[in-house]
Amino acid sequence: MKVRIAALLVTFLLVPVLYAQGEQAPDLGKIDRTIKKESAYAGKPKYCLLVFGPEAKTRVWLIIDGDTLYVDRAGEVAKVQLPAMDAEKDGPIAGSRQAKIGTVKEGKYTDLTLIQVRPRAGFLPKTPDDHDTARMLEGSTEDVFGVEVAVQGKKRFIQVALADGNGVLRFAATAKDAPVIHFDGPWAMGLHPAPKILLGNVPADLKACVGTPGLGKGTFAMAIYEGLIPAGLHPLAEVTFPGKDGKSLTRQFLLDKRC
Questions:
Q1: Which of 19, 25, 121, 157 is deepest in the core (most CB within 10 A)?
Q2: In this structure, what are the phi and psi dihedrals at residue 133, rounded to the nearest 5 degrees?
Q3: How confident is the model over 20-33, as pLDDT tens digits?
Q4: Positive or negative torsion for Cα 161, 166, 171, 176
């Protein structure tokens, strides 16, 4: 869906409802971030908090310390040795790796996976795709992370957090500043990471996704919803364009194409 966009405000008028009407999302900013007993780290650890379920009662800490991943499930800590980075010869990404963490809650949350992506220092984009990826990485050489899980319910589906309309997922230097990813929570509409929106007549793609909002950049847990949402159900985006005279112009666009 290409829309000519100028510093726009987007709202969604139709949201697929897969959970009970009136279900309220928990306040992720008030979640207890206490870690009962931290490990003896070799370097400077980085933190991310995962919460699961409509009320976010199941919680798991992911803590990266160099090539070691600590998985803290309510004080029970598993130590995972991360594989070497798979190097890429060119492009905006220098290397990547992933680690299978396993099951969080038997029969409910399985195949938890960590993804780590390392941007290439000093990369100069050559193609439109390179420009888009480099822009999404925010010009930083700091590693980007992704977290994926399979949710077992009436229909099995995958949720993944990596990048969203606010930016990319990066772990924090302290537990109190850690991003919070919410899996299997109340659903909402969110924006895909997109090319930079510029003033003027340059078209841009407006891409939306269904998932659970988190706390922090890149924490929107997008659902891979093939077969989960009826094919004929499409969201309606209401786009507000600011005018030079202070007046705004509002238009509606049906997002009837699926990625």
A1: 157
A2: -65, -45
A3: 444 678 899 999 99
A4: negative
